[in-house]
Amino acid sequence: MRTVRDVMTTTLITVTPDSSAMDAAIAMRDNNIGPVLVVENNEICGILTDRDITVEAVASGKDLSTTKVIDLCTANVQTVSPDTSIEDAVQLMQDHSIRRLPVVENGAPVGIVSLGDLTVDIDAASAGKMIQDISADTPNN
C-alpha cells in the first residue's frame, strides 16, 4: 500500500502568523509555489495560498505590507501523517473540498501533499472524477 510519504513534498516554505502578506507572497514567488504553511512553535496554525492573498487582500484593497498572514490564512487545517494511505488522503480531500494537505509527524510539519501528487497514484477515471468533484466545490485551500 502506497502512503502519503511516497508522494509528498518535503521541502516546506513556512511563515509565522505575524508575517506580512507581502512577505508570504515574496516567499511564494521566490520558491515558485502556491501555498505556504503558517507555523508557530513548530506547529501548523494555518495554510495560506496565493489565492487567499489575491482574493482576501489584493481584491479588498488591503496593504500587503501591513496585513498579517493570520488574518488571511485558513485555520483549523486538515492534516495527515506520512503513513496515511493515499486512498484515505484522497477521501479527506474530497470530504473537505481541499486541494492540499499538510503532513504532520510527531506534531510537527514534515511535508505537504497536493491533489496532483495523489492523482498520480490512482487510475485516470477515478482521478478525473475526484478532480471534478473537488473543483466543483467552493475553493477552500
Could you characterize the architecture of this molecule?
- This protein is an alpha+beta fold and 141 residues long.
- The protein has helices at residues 21-31, 50-58, 86-96, 115-119, 124-136; strands spanning 14-15, 35-40, 43-49, 100-105, 108-114.
- The two termini are 27 Å apart.
- The mean pLDDT is 89.
How far do the termini sit from each other? 27 Å
Q: Percentage of helical residues?
A: 25-40%
Please count the helical segments: 5
Strand content: 15-25%
Radius of gyration: 15 Å
List the helices and strands and how they pair.
Blueprint lengths: L13 E2 L5 H11 L3 E6 L2 E7 H9 L27 H11 L3 E6 L2 E7 H5 L4 H13 L5
Parallel strand pairs: 1-2
Antiparallel strand pairs: 2-3, 4-5
